[in-house]
Amino acid sequence: MIEEVELGKIASFSQGQQVSIPDQRKEMFDGCDTFIRIINYTQGSSDFRYIPKQNPKYHITKHDIIMVRYGAVGFVGKGIEGVLANNMFKIDYDKQVLFGDYLFRALRSGKVQSQLISASQSTSMAALNFKTVSRVKIPLPPLETQKKIAAILDEADKLRQLDKRLIEKYDALTQSLFLDMFGDLVGEKESLSSLCEINPKKSEISNLDKSTLVSFIPMSNVSEKGEVDLSIEKTIDEVWSGFTYFAERDVVFAKITPCMENGKGAIMRSLTNGIGFGTTEFHVLRPKENKSSSEWIYHLTTSYHFRKLAENNMKGSAGQKRVPTDFFKRFKIVCPPIELQNQFAERVEAIEAQKALAQKSLEKSEELFNSLLQKAFKGELV
C-alpha cells in the first residue's frame, strides 16, 4: 500500500491575478502579457486575452501545474505560459519528494478528483480554497517509483492523444469541406432568417397531450463539438413555460456569452417523440424545405466568420451579452442550391462514420489509461 500525504504538507499555492475586463484586450500589444483563462485549459482554446505587464512573480511556465478554483472545479492543467486568472492557482511542490509529471497525473486521478469535488461542496457555490486543497491526500511513493509510474502513464497517454488528434482532423476536414463547397459562391445574398425559420412557436404542438414525454436539454448538455446529451426527459406540461421549444432536425445556437463564442450548438437528433425543450439561451433555426438543410445551417453557424460577426453584434452588459434575434435577419449570405447542401450532408455523414470509429478507439485507449491509473495509485503498477 502506498503512503498517502496531505497535499499541503508537500506543496503551496499561488493565487492567480484579478484583471479588470477593460484591461483585457483581444490583440497583442507592446509590453503585454498573455492572460490565461479557464477555457484555455479546459477547451484547449487559443483565444487568449492580453494584459499590461505584470510582476514576474505572477507568471507561470508551461511546466507549472495549475488548478481551477471554481467553474470547472478541480480541473488540473499545464502547458501554457502567461499570467493566470484569479479563478485558478499555481501549485508549487517540493521537488525533493515529488516528480512533476507524477503529481500532474495524481491530481487528475479519480481518487484525488473525488476528494476535490467533495471539498468544493461546502459552500453555496462549488469552489475550492487553499485550506480544503491542502487537506486533499495524494499517494506518495518514493521519487524513483513516481518517475517509473509517470513514464508508463505517459506511454499510455500517447495512444489517447493519437486518437484525439485523429478526431480533431476529422473535425477540421468537415470545416474545410464546408469552405471548399460554399466559400466562393456568387449570386444574390439573402438574409439567414429568410432561409430558415427562427425560433418556431411551441403553439404548433399545443394539441398534444401535456403528459407526452419530450427531451429536455440544458446548456450543459450541448458541447462545443455539436454533441448532445439526451439523458433527461420531461413531460410537456413540466417544460411548457420558461423554456425554449425545438423539434427533430432543428439547429440550436447558444446566444449568450461565453457559450456562443465557445461554439455551443447542435443539430437536434433522436429527440423523444421528436420534440425537445431547453434553456432560453438557445436560438432555434429550422431549415425550410427545398431551401436549406440542417447540416448546412449548423456548419454555417459554427464557422469562425459567423461566430465573430455574431460576437460583434451582441447586446447587453459584460457577462450577460446575447446575440439578438434580428442578427439573423441582418446576416446575409448566398444560399447554395439544395442539391449542393445535400451533397455536403452526405459527405459529412461519411466523415462522421470514420470519426465514430476513431471515437470507439479513443474509448478503448481511455479505458486502458484509466485502468493503469487506478493500478498506479494502488501500488500495483510497478
UniProtKB/TrEMBL annotation:
The keyword DNA-binding applies. GO terms for biological process: DNA restriction-modification system. Keywords: DNA-binding, Restriction system. InterPro entries: Restrct_endonuc_typeI_TRD, Restrct_endonuc_typeI_TRD_sf, Type-I_RS_S_subunit. Signal peptide: none annotated. Transmembrane segments: none annotated. It comes from the Bacteria. One of its GO terms (molecular function) is DNA binding. Residues 20-168, 191-363 form the Type I restriction modification DNA specificity domain. PANTHER family: TYPE I RESTRICTION ENZYME MJAVIII SPECIFICITY SUBUNIT, TYPE-1 RESTRICTION ENZYME ECOKI SPECIFICITY PROTEIN. Belongs to the type-I restriction system S methylase family. This is Type I restriction enzyme, S subunit.
